[in-house]
Task: inverse folding
């Protein structure tokens, strides 16, 4: 698995997708497509279907903000 | 490598030019007396210093001191789980890391410290970050990265000793309470008697609820979409706020006293801690992150485009300790007050949190840790510039409590004239009208004067855009991300308290046990709420006693982080380089222990908590004298407790250094095992 951004963009559409993915990472937003890609690459043949978008988001929010979220500074 | 050889003389020339520019800029700043200079000199001094420090000092730290090695796989590569451990592009991660460390501190601290003039603050922001703050952030980031993203508290426990770990944890909790109280006080002071400001902030609650519902139910996970809607609604609220402030009925609804706002914030903090995170906490966090990055970038561009004139003197007479904004001499109080923009202990918590788990290559840590903190210092310089663009008379009229300034505009003008500055008749009233506020006298806490400075800078770029709109934009920006810190901090505090209390009684530690959740949240909210309330009703404005306490606490946490860093460097067999963290540690310990000692024991009642308590007891009868005396003693006890915790950590660390250096103890570190990186192959 290479880092998710920084790949050469084939078209304007791909460039926009990459830019949005970068913005998601900067603000710490969930990225369902990246999750699907990771699931397909790292858990193949386990017979475990990936989470639905709704399940994924619920799990993401609890993990990221459950204990108060990323420490916000003074 | 022929090309590189030919480039070399050119690079040498370039760096000599950068150094010359920086030196010239500092000379201009230090020698100017009487005439007005451009903010360009502050920018040049800062940026040239950052460039040199990054190019040379951070490289030395990366290669020699830490021995960063791109062939060694980072936790993001080894443990990649597509969630918290994700290899991330270093520029994207830079944005992420900066959004996590940036807060209100580097904006408010330099604004308050401007009572000494612009020079002490500028010098400390630049020198402090280059030799202290950026080194701390970089060190903790690297050490945590080598330990699979362990937290500061865990590292203190494993690498120093369990006592130091426990002391660090209690210190973090106590510091959190003071931090939340002082930040909440800044917001209360900015919003009280300001219907326009309060209306916008009140609107953020329904906006957040809408975003939360959107992201959870309507379009699961579509954060960017929901944030875009949220930002549009927020800007609509900003514009609508003007009508609210002009309509007598609406204005009355949104004109609140400081005490009323205090209760509202306490209630809100409690709800944010016990409600599900998707509903309120996470949408507010996204909204404030976008606003924060957007505003910082806009302000930087606006300052570069307008290069506003510096109206504040380089050094004022208040370096002697007679300052009306807060008491104490320039040493040590300029350092305590500026705090976050130069070195912030809280960054050690972020640098040992999410960021180390997302680094792709070890060498990226240099840009994140060292470079990220340079950006934070730059934000501090922008706050100094915003302060320095104000007329000195206006700066003091806004930041000095009413009890010192005098009850009427004429009395205030007289007080300010006595200090050697001028305030024209009607000047403050005209400014207040221009900014859309009822009054700007004694709007302490730093946020309103920052907003006036930002409004004049941003309004200078977009001509005819209305200063009142920019003023309230700046207030919204500050209040929103301070409130996000209050939300998140209360919840973090609740979890820490539950963990600590779980050692005493098991059920309390279960984060899903509802009575435990409610009780722990109530304890944390009551803790900061108490200090906030006392600050709001304090006749001297509260900032005077709470901000130094916060600064001392924050800098002492940085001292704890540097202790951990020094200990690990010595254990890594890098004792010859331990000075990189030891020198800032010695400086911080000196500054904070001196400041703490003076705040507790100084015989000057304006400065010393105990002397103030004695003066109140002996002086003429005042309302609530018992409460004032009790609070002075409480503040003194708290300062002493902070100092004691830090002395414990320093002694525990020094003992560890001695044991290792005299070979009484093996120099063992708890790094994760070396694994060859896949990325390095073929590079």
Result:
């Amino acid at each position: 698995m290479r880092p998710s951004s920084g790949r050469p963009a084939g078209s304007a559409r791909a460039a926009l997708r990459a830019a949005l993915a970068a913005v998601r990472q900067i603000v710490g937003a969930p990225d369902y497509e990246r999750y699907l890609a990771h699931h397909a690459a790292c858990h193949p043949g386990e017979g475990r279907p990936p989470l639905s978008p709704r399940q994924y988001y619920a799990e993401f929010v609890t993990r990221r903000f459950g204990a108060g979220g990323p420490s916000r500074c003074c | 490598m022929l090309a590189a050889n030919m480039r070399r003389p050119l690079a040498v020339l370039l760096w000599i030019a950068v150094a010359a520019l920086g030196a010239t800029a500092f000379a201009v700043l230090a020698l100017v007396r009487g005439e007005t200079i451009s903010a360009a000199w502050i920018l040049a001094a800062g940026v040239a210093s950052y460039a040199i420090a990054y190019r040379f000092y951070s490289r030395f730290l990366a290669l020699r001191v830490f021995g960063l090695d791109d062939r060694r796989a980072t936790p993001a590569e080894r443990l990649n789980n597509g969630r918290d451990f994700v290899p991330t592009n270093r520029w994207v991660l830079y944005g992420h890391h900066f959004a996590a460390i940036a807060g209100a501190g580097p904006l408010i601290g330099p604004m308050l410290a401007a009572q000494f003039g612009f020079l002490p603050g500028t010098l400390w922001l630049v020198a402090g970050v280059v030799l202290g703050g950026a080194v701390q952030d970089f060190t903790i980031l690297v050490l945590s990265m080598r330990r699979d993203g362990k937290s500061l508290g865990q590292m203190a426990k494993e690498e120093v000793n369990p006592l130091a770990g426990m002391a660090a944890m209690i210190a973090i909790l106590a510091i959190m309470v003071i931090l939340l109280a002082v930040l909440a006080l800044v917001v209360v002071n900015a919003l009280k008697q300001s219907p326009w400001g309060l209306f916008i902030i009140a609107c953020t609650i329904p906006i957040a609820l809408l975003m939360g519902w959107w992201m959870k139910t309507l379009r699961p996970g579509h954060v960017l979409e929901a944030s875009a809607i949220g930002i549009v609604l927020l800007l609509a609220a900003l514009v609508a706020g003007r009508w609210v402030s002009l309509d007598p009925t609406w204005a009355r609804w949104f004109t609140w006293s400081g005490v009323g706002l205090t209760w509202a914030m306490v209630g809100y903090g409690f709800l944010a801690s016990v409600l599900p995170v998707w509903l309120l906490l996470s949408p507010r966090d996204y909204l404030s992150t976008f606003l924060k990055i957007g505003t910082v970038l806009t302000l930087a561009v606006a300052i570069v485009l307008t290069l506003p004139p510096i109206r504040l003197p380089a050094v004022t007479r208040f370096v002697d300790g007679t300052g009306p904004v807060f008491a104490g001499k320039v040493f040590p109080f300029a350092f305590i007050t500026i705090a976050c923009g130069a070195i912030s202990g809280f960054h050690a918590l972020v640098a040992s949190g999410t960021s180390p788990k997302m680094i792709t290559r070890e060498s990226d840590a240099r840009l994140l840790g060292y470079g990220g903190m340079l950006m934070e210092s730059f934000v501090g310089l922008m706050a100094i510039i915003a302060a320095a663009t104000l007329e000195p008379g206006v700066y003091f009229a806004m930041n000095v409590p009413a009890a010192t300034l005098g009850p009427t505009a004429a009395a205030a003008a007289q007080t300010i004239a006595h200090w050697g500055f001028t305030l024209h008749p009607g000047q403050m009233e005209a400014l207040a009208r221009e900014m859309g506020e009822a009054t700007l006298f004694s709007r302490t806490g730093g946020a309103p004067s920052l907003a006036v400075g930002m409004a004049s800078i941003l309004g200078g770029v977009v001509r005819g855009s209305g200063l009142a709109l920019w003023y309230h934009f700046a207030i919204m920006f500050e209040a929103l991300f301070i409130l996000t810190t209050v939300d998140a901090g209360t919840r973090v505090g609740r979890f820490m308290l539950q963990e600590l209390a779980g050692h005493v009684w098991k059920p309390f530690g279960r984060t899903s046990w509802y009575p435990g959740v409610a009780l722990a949240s109530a304890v944390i909210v009551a803790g900061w709420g108490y200090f906030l309330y006392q600050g709001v009703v304090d006749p001297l404005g509260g900032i005077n006693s709470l901000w130094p306490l916060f600064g001392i606490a924050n800098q002492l946490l940085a001292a704890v982080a540097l202790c951990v860093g020094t200990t690990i460097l010595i254990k890594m067999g890098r004792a010859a380089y331990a000075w990189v963290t030891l020198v800032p540690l010695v400086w911080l310990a000196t500054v904070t222990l001196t400041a703490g000692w003076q705040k507790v024991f100084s015989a000057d009642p304006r400065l010393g908590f105990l002397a103030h308590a004695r003066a109140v007891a002996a002086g003429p009868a005042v309302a609530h004298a018992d409460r004032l005396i009790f609070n002075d003693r409480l503040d003194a006890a708290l300062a002493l407790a902070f100092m004691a915790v830090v002395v414990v950590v320093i002694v525990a660390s020094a003992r560890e250094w001695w044991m290792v250096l005299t070979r009484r103890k093996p120099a063992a570190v708890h790094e994760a095992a070396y694994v060859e990186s896949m990325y390095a192959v073929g590079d």
Summary: Chain B touches chain A through 63 residues (CB under 8 Å). Chain B is about 70% helix and 0% strand. Residues 201 and 476 of chain B are 7 Å apart (CA to CA).
